[in-house]
Amino acid sequence: MDVKKIAVQTATKYKTWDPYEIADARNVQIVYAPLKSILGYYTKYKRVQCIILNNNIPNQLQRFVCAHELGHSICHANLNTQWLKKNTLVSTDRIEREASTFAVELLLPDDFILEYPDYSLKSLGKMVGIPTGLCLLKKFSR
């Protein structure tokens, strides 16, 4: 699965790189709730897609989590990773990495990197709310 290509096609189709605007355009409901230690999750019930975001985390992290969960809604619409983790021995690492890659590609498009050639990937990622270690998922092509 070429996750970068999916992220770029999604942004192009909806004419925005904003995960909230894309979710709205796709009729994905966003719900804010006090989730304690969970940052957020994606769920689908009777064809209604929902992103649940922790309302106790900073806005920039919420934006990244929204983009990550949007990645699940686009790349893994019918998978329930919480159920897989709890009830099977199936590893969800690949699924989570793909959703994080989608979020990184959506929040840190190549054009944005080209706009700021003197900045490191780490500092650009910080500017847009990507957790530091996840910037390594970015596949930059000139």
TrEMBL record:
IrrE N-terminal-like domain segment(s): 24-118
Protein name: ImmA/IrrE family metallo-endopeptidase
Organism: Megasphaera elsdenii
